[in-house]
Specification:
The protein is built from 20 helices and no strands. It is mainly alpha-helical and 436 residues long.
């Protein structure tokens, strides 16, 4: 027999303990959160993966050596990166194929194998440097690299191989949150915002070799081949349809804008502290974090370390995926995040091999990361013009893209972007060889 509770007692309970929890009451809030996450995706992930340990070191060097002077180049690079990312996203949606698969179909297996080999070499080197970056970031907290890197590597492998694309994408999006540490660090550095604005709208063009080299290095580290390769393949795996094209294009451009805003804040933070106090040389992103402490306080160092950790973790995950996409597409094998080894043996094997090798090398004491990055810079410098050329040619092909092909003023701008970026990239290769 059910006991009837008097209405007075029910009202007292409601006053004391609050309104009874109704199942599903939190669902609208959760639904809104997942709706926002659904608007974010490959464009944001790809662009921010480019802000890895090497990128942070480059931007820190720019700020330390020239203060705010090179902020204008970030604006121009943002336009270039946004355009390239938009074209890659468009091709992924319209064709349903990754860039390497299209190259193999349209230009033959030789070009596909050449590009795949170059990507494999370059991405392996960058992947190692980013695992080193993870160890360096946690090393600032006193955690030895031999203890920190292996479990993180295992976690990354589990996310990619044992999860699903959707779950992995959400984790990658959450890994962009630590990038907000850089704007806060810039604010703590108390920059002269008037000078910052002036540097953006009134470029100060330098003629010294060091200035020109940093301009080229900044462009090279902001637009890297694996970003577009990952973006196009991820859009395909995401299952984006042609009606989703405007949204995917907007997200790709917005990701480029966000990533380069972060790059700008890194330059502002180091320009307001290291440059102003005569510290003009930065060896690595971890060195930049340490150097900030005397001028902007220990919080700035912690924020830089948090940003470095998040950036390195994201790149450590994206690089093996991008490489595995390229290898699988070039050879015509199955691919996909969350696929088991028996379903996509090549895809899983490439990811596993890269993570294992990068982990082993990263925990070796005294690994020559700088020399490694110099070699990677050369390979990337040669690969980027080829990669951009394929993006441009395929995006304007009526056979490949149909009515969605790139044409008119946008095609002209894309062609100019490819030529200028390629020229800078090849110049960097020449300068690097000259300094070897």
């Amino acid at each position: 027999m059910a006991v009837r509770v008097p209405s007075v007692i029910r009202r007292m309970r409601a006053a004391t303990f609050g309104r009874p929890r109704v199942p599903g009451r939190l669902r609208p809030r959760r639904a809104r959160l997942f709706a926002v996450l659904g608007l974010l995706g490959p464009g944001l992930i790809a662009a921010n993966a480019g802000n890895d340990a090497g990128g942070i070191a480059t931007y820190s060097s720019v700020g330390a050596k020239y203060g705010y002077q090179l902020l204008w180049i970030i604006v121009l690079i943002t336009v270039s990166l946004g355009l390239v990312q938009m074209l890659a996203a468009r091709m992924g949606v319209v064709t349903g194929k990754g860039l390497s698969e299209l190259v193999r179909e349209e230009y033959g297996i030789r070009w596909s194998v050449f590009a795949t080999t170059a990507v494999l070499i370059a991405n392996m080197g960058i992947c190692i440097s980013d695992f080193v970056g993870v160890g360096a970031a946690l090393g600032l907290a006193g955690i030895p690299v031999q203890i920190s890197v292996p479990p993180i590597a295992a976690g990354i492998w589990m996310i990619i191989v044992r999860g699903s694309y959707r779950s992995a994408e959400r984790i990658f999006i959450w890994l962009t949150i630590p990038f907000f540490a850089y704007p806060v660090a810039a604010i703590l550095a108390h920059p002269h915002w008037g000078e910052v604005g002036k540097a953006i709208i009134q470029p100060q063009i330098g003629t010294s070799s060091g200035y020109i080299l940093l301009v080229i290095a900044t462009a090279g580290t902001t637009i890297t081949p694996y970003m577009q390769l990952y973006l196009q393949s991820a859009v395909v795996e995401r299952g984006a349809r042609e009606e989703d094209l405007p949204r995917e294009e907007r997200e790709a451009v917005a990701g480029a804008v966000f990533a380069n805003l972060i790059a700008g804040f890194i330059i502002i933070a180091t320009g307001a502290t290291l440059f102003m106090h005569g510290v003009h040389e930065v060896g690595s992103a971890a060195d930049a974090a340490r150097a900030l402490s005397p001028f902007a306080g220990s919080y700035a160092e912690v924020l830089f370390a948090v940003g470095l950790l998040g950036a390195s973790l994201l790149a450590c995950a994206i690089l093996p995926i991008a490489t595995s996409y390229v290898v699988s597409e070039s050879l015509g094998y199955e691919k996909g995040i969350g696929r088991r080894r028996e379903e996509a043996p090549v895809f899983v094997s490439v990811i596993t091999g890269m993570i294992v090798i990068a982990t082993i090398v990263a925990i070796i004491p005294g690994v020559p990361v700088i020399s490694l990055l110099v070699g990677v810079q050369v390979v990337n410098g040669l690969l980027l013009p080829i990669n951009l050329f394929f993006v441009w040619r395929l995006s304007r092909s009526s056979r490949v893209m149909g009515e969605r092909r790139n044409r008119g003023p946008l095609d002209v701008v894309a062609g100019i972007t490819v030529m200028l970026t390629s020229a800078l990239s090849l110049t960097l290769v020449v300068v690097t060889f000259a300094g070897l």
